Write a sequence for this structure.
């Protein structure tokens, strides 16, 4: 008799667990309501000129070797208002910034020796939150992608050079125009001043003749003594 009691208790436990696992159809409202958060990437005011998958390296001067910065997407982004173009690369999984710098007119890119899928360039980079002089090497999946990157990079650098020259020319033209206007104003003021100070010779001669005639008349009218 006593040997059946554990089996009876075991069946009761199974029935209790089965009851717990049954779907009652009840719905439980979430205690905390999560709101959608808009994340700013800093790229909202820029248009992509180039967007390619690649792997980036930086040259470690202390160790005298190349070190991987990450694999992801490299972009060339043009600002809609200023027209400036920057290179931005993020790691594919973490989205951590690997490279972030402007493309300047003085920059050049060249093929990495011994590898036609890679190219190198110097830049003052801000990926780590401070400006650093870096030597970068980027590797693509194909020779064509590498050539496209190099050509676009160089075209942008040249366009920035022309942009700076046009900006300087416009500033110089504005300065010359301002100087011309100021010189004209100075000349006008000088002419006005000269006109005010110039004596009326004809009027002075007429007044002198009138004084002589008046003196003769007064002398004739004096009574004889």
């Amino acid at each position: 008799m006593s040997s059946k009691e554990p089996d009876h208790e075991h069946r009761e436990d199974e029935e209790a667990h089965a009851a717990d696992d049954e779907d009652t159809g009840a719905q439980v409202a979430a205690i905390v309501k999560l709101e959608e958060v808009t994340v700013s990437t800093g790229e909202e005011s820029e248009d992509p000129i180039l967007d390619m998958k690649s792997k980036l390296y930086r040259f470690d001067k202390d160790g005298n070797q190349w070190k991987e910065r990450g694999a992801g997407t490299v972009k060339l982004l043009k600002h809609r208002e200023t027209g400036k173009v920057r290179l931005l690369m993020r790691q594919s999984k973490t989205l951590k910034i690997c490279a972030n710098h402007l493309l300047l007119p003085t920059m050049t890119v060249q093929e990495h020796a011994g590898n036609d899928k890679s190219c190198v360039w110097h830049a003052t980079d801000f990926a780590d939150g401070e400006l650093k002089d870096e030597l970068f090497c980027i590797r693509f999946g194909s020779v064509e992608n590498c050539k496209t990157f190099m050509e676009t990079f160089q075209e942008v650098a040249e366009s920035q050079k022309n942009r700076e020259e046009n900006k300087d020319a416009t500033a110089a033209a504005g300065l010359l125009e301002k100087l011309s206007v100021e010189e004209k104003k100075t000349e006008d003021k000088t002419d006005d001043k000269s006109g005010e100070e110039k004596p009326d010779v004809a009027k002075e001669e007429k007044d002198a003749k009138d004084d002589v005639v008046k003196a003769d008349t007064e002398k004739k009218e004096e009574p004889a003594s």
Q: What stands out?
A: The two ends are 185 Å apart (CA to CA). The helical segments are 5-21, 143-197, 201-220. The chain has a mean pLDDT of 79.
